[in-house]
Write a structure and sequence with these properties.
By secondary structure, the protein is of the alpha/beta class. The chain is built from eleven helices and ten strands.
């Protein structure tokens, strides 16, 4: 069973829907605050960081999460983001090349892991097989992020290709919009295995990690933040980027399972 990658129509609809959400967020009551577009895998971390930023600095930010690749396209289409935090430098590089980045900073690193429901029998054999567990005969569906629409999918494809496993997986792939959707496929049992970020799988009830991919198996999983050119709240957005890059890092990074860039 294979679920194909995100179609152009889906991406167009996603962009249009987000533009409506962004308009609504930007027109609600209350004091203005910068709008932060961020990778879905940063949801818990940035919600925590935003709360501390508000408590310590007296400044608020609004958070909008999604696939980094799709968020980049939404910014290109005119979505009013003030700060963009991507799960890959690729999206930031593209925006910078287009003149849409005021300044940027490396923030976090992550790891890629292979997970399954902890109720599945025979886990010892899959644990011993490592990454090759994806090709075991009892495995019918392997969830990943869409490589054309999410960094987590690109990292997974790089790792599996380098290990000689990618071609053998065709017909078994179940592709999600972003990392957390791939994780949900494993949690629900819709997929037998899922390749996700270590931080997303960390502490999730009902899941076990059976393999951690070597860091050298794929491009570095580096989260990069950038103040977006043309944003309405560039000053506060820059303050939040500095907070993430310098102050929150001490202790909080490890609390959420990330590592230093």
């Amino acid at each position: 069973m294979k679920r194909s990658g995100i179609s152009l129509r889906f991406v167009t609809i996603a962009i249009a829907m987000t533009m409506v959400v962004v308009w609504w967020i930007g027109h609600d009551a209350g004091p203005p605050a910068p709008l932060v577009f961020a990778a879905s895998s940063l949801t818990d971390y940035l919600e925590d960081a935003a709360g501390r930023f508000r408590d310590h600095e007296g400044k608020a930010v609004r958070l909008h999460f999604g696939s980094s690749a799709i968020l980049k396209r939404q910014i290109e289409a005119g979505a009013g983001a003030d700060l963009f935090v991507s799960a890959s430098p690729v999206e930031i590089d593209a925006l910078e090349k287009a003149g849409r980045v005021v300044r940027r900073a490396d923030l976090l690193r992550n790891r890629l892991v292979l997970v399954e429901k902890d109720s599945r029998p025979g886990w010892q054999e899959r644990w011993e097989a490592g990454a090759k567990a994806v090709l075991r005969p009892e495995i019918e569906r392997v969830a990943i992020g869409d490589p054309d629409a999410s960094p987590v999918g690109r990292y997974a494809r790089q790792a599996l290709t380098g290990m000689g496993l990618w071609e053998g997986l065709q017909g078994r792939l179940l592709q999600g919009v972003h990392a957390r959707q791939a994780l949900q496929y494993a949690r629900s049992g819709e997929a037998d295995l899922a390749i996700v970020y270590q931080t997303d799988a960390r502490g999730v009830e009902g899941l076990r990690t059976i393999y951690t991919f070597p860091s050298e198996a794929h491009s570095p999983i580096l989260y990069v933040g950038a103040v977006v050119q043309g944003g309405d709240q560039a000053d506060i957005a820059g303050d939040f980027l500095d907070y993430l890059a310098h102050r929150v890092r001490h202790g909080m990074i490890h609390e959420h399972g990330f590592s230093y860039p």
